[in-house]
């Protein structure tokens, strides 16, 4: 049996396909030139008519525009629904988180509420260096409340019935000097437990630069964001 390579196989296929192609052309275009011209003219006229109806007709373009607007409107509606859902979901989530943060940070003199005007009975100021009268540790004031603001459980533990009056006195948030090795980094104490120290510049605490930019000889200088909260200190 003779061997047929790829080139020979391709030539045989082309020859075989030529017969039905010739038959189709002869049937479609006719057997003479006059018939071929007539059929060609009809094809050109039909194609032009179809083109004008599809692309040169105002009605066709109006239909296309309606279809496009319909699809666009559907996409917009779906998009708006998704957007509304996302806003609702993340808005609710953010609101809840924000409420919790606001509630937590209103305790222990951490509220961002501006302390103005400053009551006359607030004796001490943010930036002053203090010593605890009982425990002896030193530190620096970073905030104050006109009275104790803390969770009720903390207040009950801190102030038993015999010391209930202290809850209504000014309280101060303190960054405790690490050099004292007290075991705590912050404290929230009433005014009666504080003694002010002047001339003690060095208070070691990892958060000092977040609250203060320097020392002026009598107290630490507040960062701008802290000064906005305590404008009269």
TrEMBL record:
Example GO molecular function: DNA binding
InterPro entries listed in its UniProt record: Clp_protease_adapter_ClpF, Hemimethylated_DNA-bd_dom, Hemimethylated_DNA-bd_sf
SMART domains associated with the record: YccV-like
Domain Hemimethylated DNA-binding: 121-223
SUPFAM superfamilies (UniProt xref): YccV-like
Domain of life: Eukaryota
Spans through the membrane: none
Pfam families noted in UniProt: YccV-like
Residues annotated as signal peptide: 1-21
Keywords: Signal
NCBIfam families given in the database record: yccV
Protein name: FBX21 protein
Source organism per UniProt: Chionis minor (Black-faced sheathbill)
